[in-house]
Amino acid sequence: MSYDLQVYAPDQLDVGALRSLVGEISGLEIDGVDSRRSLTVVRGVRRRYSFTIDGPDRVAAEDVPVEVTGILLGARYLYSVMVEGSTESEIPHALRFAKQLTVALNGAMVDQQTGRLWTRSKSRTIVRPPRKTRVPMVGLVWCCLREQVPADAPALIISAAERFLPEALPRRFGEYEPFQGKYSETGREGFSQAWRDATSWLFFSGSGPCTGGHLSGGPGQQFPDRYWSMSLTLLADPLREAPWRDAVRDLFTALADTLGTFYASAEVTRDNTEYAVRTLRSLDGWMGLPPTPTWWSWFGSPYASVAELLPGNRRRPTLKGVFFESATEPRPRDQTEPLSRWLPANLFARIGPNPGHQQPVPLIRAEVVPNELG
Questions:
Q1: Residues facing residue 227 across a β-bridge
Q2: Is 164 in contact with 247 (CB distance < 8 Å)?
Q3: pLDDT at 45 (0 to 100)
Q4: Considering the domain boundaries, does residue 124 fall inside one?
Q5: Whether residues 98 and 210 fall in one domain
Q6: DSSP 3-state assignment of 26?
Q7: What is the pLDDT, as a whole number, of residue 277?
């Protein structure tokens, strides 16, 4: 017989710490340390085999089960605790150790036989700001040509959110408030149908740190143009912690790669009432790259080649483009280096005269706009 337990965790233990953890359970000890990747645990004075510990193995975010992602932030390592070929009497010992390891690493345990999850982690809990308080926000925007947006875009968005950032799932949605759609009732298909039927933007609310976002309408949009976009707004302060930042970055690049995106950005604003310059499309077509500094940028075709001019230590290729990070933590625009420091200035839109303080602010089109986007 065999019994398998998996422990997902954001960190790992060295062999000495692992030996000490095993020793905290009366009667158990590691039988030598010949292999760092696989350790045998024995029990009692007769040193009877009890269970095996494999790992830690590095695991990519996309390979973590969505059920684990839903309760644990930043899972990057996997331990396997296995009772192999011994009697059922050893299972309680393996289970006790696996739970102890889970607590020590602030992780989550999956019982492979029952599918049950166990954790004491509160890693996905955030401190919410008081209502009506002005706080820094991060706005993510994905810009696409409508003709390149997949017909199943909402399903792709849901899949990416489940995989990387469940807080971005559309808790409620609709074209106007109060939102009539409830994800808990209609699920993925309900959200997809609402998008297909939408005559204008489809708005949605998320869960902290995600406050909400929008999608341009689907095939039912009343006045469609060539351009399609999606946005997501988040509280900035949680993103100062690496695990939250990594999860949002994974979602940001995954959607950029799958939605037919040609440009995407993450911009930090001073508070949740400030309008960020994100409307880079008009009746004249695409206006160009943003005139204000952005925290993150993602460049797809036709901008990916020029993105190679950006500093190599801050950019990395993704499946279909190039990701660029101007700083490690989110910074407001006045503390962020503009992309025009490295990229040709004629690719950027400019802010036009605005004596009446209109919103959105008027933009002057870039001198050079790729033919595909003109």
A1: 145
A2: yes
A3: 86
A4: no
A5: no
A6: coil
A7: 46
Please name the residues in contact with 181: beta carbons below 8 A apart, sequence gap of 6 or more: 170, 172, 173, 174, 190, 191, 194, 204
Q: Which of 306, 290, 276, 278 is nearest to 365 (CA)?
A: 290
Domain co-membership, 89 together with 223: no
User: Looking at the 3D structure of the chain, how many domains does it have?
Assistant: 2
Question: For position 271, what pLDDT does the model report?
Answer: 61
127 assigned to some structural domain: no
pLDDT along the chain (374 residues), means of 10: 94 92 93 76 91 94 96 97 87 96 98 96 91 88 95 97 98 96 97 97 96 95 92 96 97 97 92 54 80 95 95 96 96 92 95 79 89 88
Q: What is the DSSP string of 194-260?
A: HHHH-SS-EEEE--TTEEEEEE---TT-SS--SEEEEEEEEESGGGGSHHHHHHHHHHHHHHHHHTT
Say whether both 346 and 203 belong to one domain: yes
CATH of the domain at 18: 3.30.70
Which residue do the tokens 């302060």 mark? 237
